[in-house]
């Protein structure tokens, strides 16, 4: 039995390019988006490719559009979403990479779980920045899971699974499975 909410039958429509009767202006490219928190301290600041910038742009569009119908974030301005959500999410990368490499780990196949993912932060942004990593977005609210599934599809992310469940329930189920193997 799979607890993943990403079934083939739950495909969502792509976001329309027309919002509330107004045509969206073309977005300026996110030229060399860098993490502000670590750019001065580290020479390995995160730069996103053109494709990754497009994926982030699609995420921001989806977040702002869906936020009009449900409360995903208090931030409603596009530039604030970029600085307060996207840049902050990318700031997690250097410490994560240092933590794995300091123990001699290979960072190419890291598996991470974003518990209580909400609007998909930082999980979706990290998934864009590190396509070789595998991410599980764990969220308990069905309506947020629906948004996350939509965002994963729109952003064309193959390294993300959305699980609609409570973290406590997932941990209890794993403990019970582990104990049944011991008997």
From TrEMBL:
Instruction: Return the InterPro entries for the record.
Output: rRNA_ssu_MeTfrase_G, SAM-dependent_MTases_sf
Q: Which Pfam families does the entry mention?
A: GidB
**What NCBIfam families does the annotation carry?**
rsmG_gidB
What HAMAP family does the database record attribute to this sequence? Answer: 16SrRNA_methyltr_G
| Single Gene Ontology MF annotation | rRNA methyltransferase activity
- Which Gene3D superfamilies does its entry note? Vaccinia Virus protein VP39
Q: Keyword set for this entry?
A: Cytoplasm, rRNA processing, Transferase
GO cellular component, alphabetical, reads: cytoplasm
Protein name from the UniProt record: Uncharacterized protein
Membrane-crossing segments per the record: none
The species this protein belongs to is Triticum aestivum
